[in-house]
Amino acid sequence: MIRLYDYDLSGNCYKVRLMLAILGLDYERKNVEFFPGKRHREPEFLAVNPLGQLPVLEDGDLRLTQSQAILTYLARAYDASGQWFPLDTPARTGQCLQWLGFADALTATASAARLADGMGFDFDGDAAREGAHKLFAVLDEHLWFHEREGHDWLVPGAAPTIADIACFPYVMLSEEGGIPREPFPAIRRWTDRVKRIPGFVVMPGIFPAILGSQ
Amino acid sequence: MTIERASGANGWVPVAASEDVIPRHVFQGKLLGQELAIWRADDGYVNIWENRCLHRGVRLSIGINTGTELICQYHGWRYANRNAGCTYIPAHPADAPPRTICNRTYPVREAAGLIWTHLDAVEPAFPALTEAPLVLRAMPLRAVPAAVEAALAAWSVEGLTAEGDLRFGDGSSQLQLYVQAVDAGQSVIRGVLTGALAGQGLVVLRRLNTALTALTRQLEAEALAAPAPAPIAPVYARVSEELAEMPGLEADLADGPGKIRVTLAAKKMVANGIVSLELKPLRGVLPTFQPGAHIDVALPSGLVRQYSLVNAPGETDRYVIGVKREAQSTGGSEAIHEHLREGDLLAISEPRNNFTLRRDAAQTIFIAGGIGVTPLLAMSAALAGDGQDFQLHYFAAGQEHLAFQDRLAALGDRLTPHLGLDPAATAAKLRDILAQPGPAKQVYVCGPGPMLDATLKIAAEAGWPDNSVHFEYFKNTQTLDDSQAFEIALARSAVTLQVPAGKSILQVLRENGIKMASSCGQGACGTCKVRVLEGTPDHQDVYLNASEKASNATIMTCVSRAKTDRLILDL
């Protein structure tokens, strides 16, 4: 049984829950109260991840930290189709990893602004917002031209990849950190498409795009 | 203020590209501080609304576009394509929302690959445009709109030089730019390209995007050096006075037919002896409606008749009704079948809904007899759109009597026709259909009087509670007795009036200057319902169900009278 050290309001934990749901995998959830309890700084959790970061995934003897690494593992281990982590061409593998790096940049900016505004973290909210705004402008431009070339997803190809799952949460939660998405219509269309992936699940602050989704 | 010189302040201004407003999506826009929710219905119509739900002010741009309606994420209020009226409030599943709950809409034009609106008090002239241009990627920038316009006036790109009014050309190609004044310190540059350069497609769009990005960086750097202007305070739509006050009788008072002028856009035979009429507004947008609603139609002969709307949700550009030619027509159906022609003008009332569809049932059973299918078609389409569990049982004399085949076909296996059954066989079939009452099941039945009487009796015998069986009679065929005289006291008006034999309560009220809505005049439609505070009504209508009649809580003032000497009414 897969075990996930998880926190409801974390976008990085949510992207793992989202991937698990899309792949139809059962898992055991272990809640670590990040805010306000700061349980991720306590010895019990530091024994699991000395860096004190969520999420952590355990699968048999394997223990993995870093949400982008966890997504990659889940796709390689449980997606027989090879859709979610593309190895079909070197270019697509590289592009996928490029956007996983972009997701880390979103964590450093959009997520940091949200933690500063919403959970009292001592981060420079304005600097984080400015950084996220620049990332969003790049993302919107990429997606706009991509749409015109017939591509719906971050990596060219017919189907979404873990790059979409990795970038989605902190884009979608940006307004909680005071970063509007109204100037970026191509981003808003892309997030609607992600919400329509079969198996999509929501988290607090992220709403469904169709009737009857959970 | 400098902002008023920006092109966004006067005249039509593009606020989105056509390609932005894709199906089942809600585009978030902004113009002069006003947030906009822009969405395209499945019929292609583009709606531009104020971006806040009338209920709790939540942004509609995070809502769900069903293709016919926009649903707010917060409490599920639904608003219809085109007229923006509220069609359903989940917290009040048994009530029709008043027509006054209607979102603020903005003027819409879709032309030259762009979606346009304006905030002017008087509709400005629409600019002449070249159709089918190449539409640039919109460039958002955090700079004062007037400053952006000033910078663009001296700009040149791709060898195209400024010709004034943000037009750039070289004789063979033309670039038209627009500055959308998003807010005091926010702009969007939009543009369309025509001519030779446009033939390069995506390649030239990328180059223009690069050039505009460079300009944007420069303007944003300059804007950062100056103090940021205060954002424009948004002006929210005023809630109508009817909505702000306690809902009084006046709020939903229809003035009867004559209120809305429509033209008969199409008249088609849709079954043996049944025509459909498509009514389109002479100008503006038709008022909102919910499934089960009916309108009064004033015929050129002076007759007034009630017909249910067949419309599916979002089908808001016209009203569709079905009219059966009655063998013993008293003039209404004959006049429609024989004399009405496409292009004729008619006067109709606003829609009223006294046959409300609940959308919280686990299962819904619709039972239609003949032309009684019309409101049930509207209801079926609403539930089908939501993917809810329902069955439509349609009793008719034969295949050729099944009306609105195209709408029926869309229901697939959720439609069960029952053809050519005599009353005994009909009753047996109804017993089958109604064999299993359930706590979350609802029944809606509409058809001829004898069939309704039979259905209500069978439902009661099968153990269906009254409040799960909803019905609508076409007309009241009971013999009315108006021989009794009595007194009515109006609690709120502090007036006492005498109702003599031969006159209805409604007539007496109106003679004394009390405004009352009414429609059918025979106790079938429920429009003239009034609360009874004291006294025992003599119910002669066919609108209330048995338990509603027994409770004596309400009365149909057009036909019902009093068993006691005096009634106290909540008027």
UniProtKB/TrEMBL annotation, chain A:
GST C-terminal domain: residues covered: 89-214
Domain GST N-terminal: 1-82
Domain of life where this protein originates: Bacteria
Family the entry assigns: Belongs to the GST superfamily.
Name the record gives this protein: Glutathione S-transferase family protein
TrEMBL record, chain B:
Keywords: 2Fe-2S, Flavoprotein, FMN, Iron, Iron-sulfur, Metal-binding, Oxidoreductase
rRNA-binding keyword on record: no
Domain Rieske: 12-117
Residue ranges of domain 2Fe-2S ferredoxin-type in the record: 486-571
Signal peptide: none
Cofactor requirement: FMN
TM ranges: none
Pfam families: DmmA-like_N (PF22290), Fer2 (PF00111), Rieske (PF00355)
PROSITE patterns: 2FE2S_FER_1, 2FE2S_FER_2, FAD_FR, RIESKE
Stretches assigned to the FAD-binding FR-type domain: 257-358
Protein name: Rieske 2Fe-2S domain-containing protein
Organism: Pseudogemmobacter lacusdianii
Phylogenetic classification of the source organism: Bacteria, Pseudomonadati, Pseudomonadota, Alphaproteobacteria, Rhodobacterales
